[in-house]
Write a structure and sequence with these properties.
With 860 residues, the protein is α+β, with helices and mostly antiparallel strands. The longest helix is centred in the last third of the chain and has 25 residues. β18 and β19 form a beta hairpin. It starts with 7 loop residues before the first helix and ends in a 5-residue tail after the last helix. The strands form seven sheets. The chain has an eight-stranded mixed beta sheet. A five-stranded mixed beta sheet has the order 15-16-17-19-18, covered by helices on one side.
Length: 860
Amino acid sequence: MPGENLSRDEARERAALLSVDGYEVSLDVRSAVGAAQGEGPRTFRSVTTIRFRCNEPGASSFADLIAPSVTAVSLNGRDLDPSEVFDGSRIALEDLAADNELVVDAQCAYSRTGEGLHRFVDPEDGEVYLYTQYEPADSRRVFANFEQPDLKAPFRFEVRAPEEWTVWSNGAGERADGVWRFAETKPISTYITCVVAGPYHYVTDSYERVLEDGTRLEIPLGALCRKGLAPHFDADDVFLITKQGLDFFHDHFDYPYPFGKYDQAFVPEYNLGAMENPGMVTFREEYIFRGKVTRASYEGRANTILHEMAHMWFGDLVTMEWWDDLWLKESFADFMGAFANVGATRFKDAWITFANRRKAWAYRADQLPSTHPITADIRDLEDAKLNFDGITYAKGASALKQLVAYVGQDAFLEGARRYFKRHAYGNTRLGDLLSVLEETSGRDMAAWSRSWLQTAGVNSLTPQVLLSAAGTVDELAVVQEAAESHPELRPHRVAVGLYRRTAEGALERYARAEVDVEGPRTVVAELAGAQAPELVLVNDDDLTYCKTRFDATSLATLREHLGALTDPLARALCWSALWNMTRDALLPARDFAALVLRFAGRESDIGVLQMLHAWTGSALVHYAAPDWRETGGRLLAEGALRELRDAAPGSEQQLAWARFFASVASEEGDLALLRGLLDGTEKIDGLDVDQELRWVFLAPLAAHGVADEAVLATELARDDTASGKRHQVRCLASRPSEVVKAQAWAQVVESDKLSNALVEATIAGFAQPSQRELLAPYTEKYFAAIERVWAERSIQIGMDVVRGLFPSLRDSRETLDATDAWLAAHEGAAPALRRLVLEARDDLARALRAQACDGSSGGR
């Protein structure tokens, strides 16, 4: 990996020297089918012509290419010796002219890691499917280029593929004389070019709109997936959300969609949620649901569709200059996903999901030692890869939500409109956006930017309530705190809500005030004289990004009456605050679990319920005192089964509780029930045990040694698909056996034969909470292996291994000491690798603090 890195300084120097006029890329992927070509990776031919200018004739530079071999290189008609100019990741370019033409003929490798041109063989029918994934810098694995976002250019692609295949790219394509040729793109960055090829199932539709000037805009729509998933593909709903999103963004952005067609490909073994390639968006195929899922899954898919669509403007039309300003696309897209979901689709509660799920991701990331400002310091490509994180996405989106409250929605959207028109097909930095927002809002954006975009860390807001002798509010203040490591106290526009129970027992808001919180303590004068509250919610309506705390009266009220809160957003915010308190060792894990068991059955928002299940599982595994885990697991299983049986037959709640029950089942009776539900000897009214739910039930049976290899092979025969194979691999690795663990470890750490999806599945199965002692030998092995893995494997697989195999279940002081010893002995290790280990160490230290809190709680 180090030889493939590119620094910010190198990119700036090259951008100052070169400008690119256009690319012509010719790929021959007919080698994707048939027998392999012998030893070494399976390869395809890639011929690239780049026309570019150099403003200092005679200067030197380089092009990027990662390939097993280069056949020929020509610069301005001069044939260069590939062995002299190509080092495996760069092509040296000497004595450049004012106008240059570079031609590179290479043999590039198909990928099995989801980076570059990924090749997938469907086990169901043997068909081969290809797709590309490049962000941040993997297009160089497919064609020679200048791999940085600010060297934009038009692209022309042509692809030779097997006769029976269809090929797609960013532009519209036609096949003639056995070659697919695609229309030239607008100027775009290398990382958002795209090729998808294979016998995909393809469905079409179209979008039409009359623009304000009277012209008619027509956008051809397409949606595709593997043939094996076609029976499950609800393309009509994908097109519905797509059309609603296009309407919404045209209404608000006043800039017509600029990239012609709009295809959306759902592809196998995808590392990301989705990628915003203009004209050809790619998604992970898990967004095609093979079994029954809840409304939250459809909302999540809609959010992703809209997130990627927002990128057509924020990211594709206008692109950040370097990865420092990654937030200029990802924060906006994350915000716009929820904003458009609420404004255009059936998912009107998307801000609840944002508050409960997306912000949880941000709060965790912002408390890690690797936290960074939203505008980050990205030194190189490895830094960039790791900064696709909760800060860049969800904290950035939260800051934009706060910005909308600060400047007003109209000024915010008008700023976006001016930004698009001013910088179309160009590259920008932070100041370019702030300048248009200053124009439209009349506000000084510099101070806001310094506090929100250029500092790290999350503030905590706690209410202080003083009551008068008459029982009314004498003074209500908001106290703001920050971590010592990141002491910035930000300005917050917040709503403070006061709640009391009604005569019918409902906990409802009776007073609200919006206030600008500044500094360590802010008095909310508007609420003086109000009736004494039972609950004070200091970030009501979720206007800002903060950790919400409670005063003693409010916390006592939630312990007894959380389920009586009638407003679903307020409930979600309270749950989020309680979870943050659990993670911060301020609330015992068993108390959080008790609150979930007592009140989650009343939760109407299915996404919140599923998030509570995930949090409670984490609380039991990581934050509960070790001597309470067995008791806690039994209580959670009993409670989950009770809620499962009480839920309305066939309801989303029933499905959610069934999945949660399986995740915590460990005792013989619970496992016997799962076996009975699988073989049909047990029934729960309304619960349809479809294929996906069968695998959910098999997972704990495998982890507890009830489902052996033969049982899992039988299940795979029943579901002999790519999805089934992933499930089976995960279950195989989860079995409680020293031999199984050794085999799984070797397959992931010592071999590179598994694809990215099967690496992910094996890692997911390897570490089971019920097998902590069985995993003991792997702490030392982990620290002995990770530097070699990082050096030898792709960055994606390196990240998966380092994160996924960290011995977090060996949660003891000894593991913490072993981590510190590795960090002390490897100060010169790759910074990105050290960051991953530091993050895992922080999670472990947090878990130990929470366990101490839970253990000293007195068994509440």
